[in-house]
Amino acid sequence: NAGVMQNPRHLVRRRGQEARLRCSPMKGHSHVYWYRQLPEEGLKFMVYLQKENIIDESGMPKERFSAEFPKEGPSILRIQQVVRGDSAAYFCASSPTGGPGTGELFFGEGSRLTVL
Amino acid sequence: SQQGEEDPQALSIQEGENATMNCSYKTSINNLQWYRQNSGRGLVHLILIRSNEREKHSGRLRVTLDTSKKSSSLLITASRAADTASYFCATQGGADGLTFGKGTHLIIQP
Q: Mind spelling out the 3-state secondary structure of chain A?
């Protein structure tokens, strides 16, 4: 049973370009979470999605960032017109259940974005 | 803002010694979880303790939870070099998802 798969593992973009990060949750998991981690920092919540629905995007910047989790295919975190401050590791996690009873989250290895 | 705050920020001990990390949080929780992150890798779940539990064990790990003080501790006994990593506490409250602290960086010296 494959774990949470994220790609690419490393992505380099120039300022103003777009970055697309993909996440395939564990088999049987329909709840996906995206987190951002700056060097030497903890993880900051960005967005929580279920299939075809955004449940909570309170941690997502209002501009340039968007996320989706379509009926078919991986979840995608999209960052438009990247700036140097977007450089970070972006982690995806999945769980079989969501909401207040959420237990363990299963994390991918992360996608490390570097903006030149 | 961060819900959990780990203490200390960094800890260096000799192999074989016990390591204790603390976590404080601010609001009511459903459960509290501890995760480990090796350098450059994703997070790995270690243990979950529910708000109605006071202590939990898993192998060399012992977690305590004091909801009256809004604090938790993670004890790793008989530490090994492979335990070198960052350790994060995460709280699960009424909202969805987990809220993570900044972590404790643990170094086990051989």
A: CCCCEEECCEEEECCCCCEEEEEECCCCCCEEEEEEECCCCCEEEEEEEECCEEEECCCCCCCCEEEECCCCCCEEEEECCCCHHHCEEEEEEEECCCHHHCCCCEECCCEEEEEC
Any chain A CB within 8 A of the CB of B51?
A: no
Residue B89 to residue B69: CA distance in whole angstroms: 15
At residue B81's C-alpha, the angle toward residues B60 and B47, to 5°, is 35
Cβ–Cβ gap A104/B33 under 8 Å: yes
Query: Quick check: B42 and A104 CB within 8 A?
Result: no
Give me the percent of chain B exceeding a pLDDT of 70: 94
Q: How confident is the model at residue B3 (pLDDT cuts 50, 70, 90)?
A: low
Report the residue of chain A nearest B46, measured CA to CA. A104
Asked if B104 reaches chain A (Cβ–Cβ under 8 Å), the answer is: no
Q: Tens digit of pLDDT for each residue in B74-99? A: 999 999 999 999 999 999 876 567 88
**What is the average pLDDT across A41-51?**
90
